[in-house]
Every structure is written in structure tokens, then in C-alpha cells.
Amino acid sequence: MALMITDECTACDACIEPCPNDAISFGDPIFIIDSLRCTECVGAEDEPQCELVCPADCIIPNPDFVESPDELQAKYEAIHN
Fold first, then answer.
1. Which of 2, 9, 22, 24 is deepest in the core (most CB within 10 A)?
2. Which helix (H) or strand (E) holds 51?
């Protein structure tokens, strides 16, 4: 399942750099996660790095992009190959 950023985002930009898939970008007014690039860090890390660094605790699963770990791994491999 890809992640998404809620309206509680403070636009601090802490989440951008740790994302291994470059899935997070500036939005207006909050940051956004590209669901087609988000793998919840499967393939790169043990847990979503954006969630770990987010001081506003505003990153949640995106209910519109439910994916299995195998699907997330395949997506990661497609992005990085």
C-alpha cells in the first residue's frame, strides 16, 4: 500500500530526502506522495523512512493503493532497474 500525507502536514520537508524512490514532492500547501513511486520503502529499508522522520505524524496508508509486499517489491525493482 502506498502512503499519503494528510492535511496535518507542516511542510517541514523532512520526508523528502530519506525517500529512496523520490516519491515525495512539494505540493500546495502540503507535500504529496506519488503513489505510483511509493513502495513504503520495501526493497530499500525495513520500514517507511518518511514516517520515521515526520514530526507531524501525518503520513498514513493510502486506501486507494492497496498492494502486497510482493507487489511493492516488484514496483521498487521496476523503479530502480
1. 24
2. helix 49-53
- For the stretch 21-25, contacts whose Cβ atoms lie closer than 8 Å and that sit 24 or more positions apart, written own/partner, are 21/76, 21/79, 21/80, 24/50
| Cα 42 versus chain centre, distance | 10
Question: Full-prediction pTM beyond 0.85?
Answer: yes
Specify the CATH number for 1-67; select among 3.30.460.10, 2.60.40.60, 3.30.70.20, 3.30.420.150. Answer: 3.30.70.20
What is the C-alpha separation between 40 and 10, in angstroms, rounded? 21
**Contact, 33 vs 50, CB < 8 A?**
yes
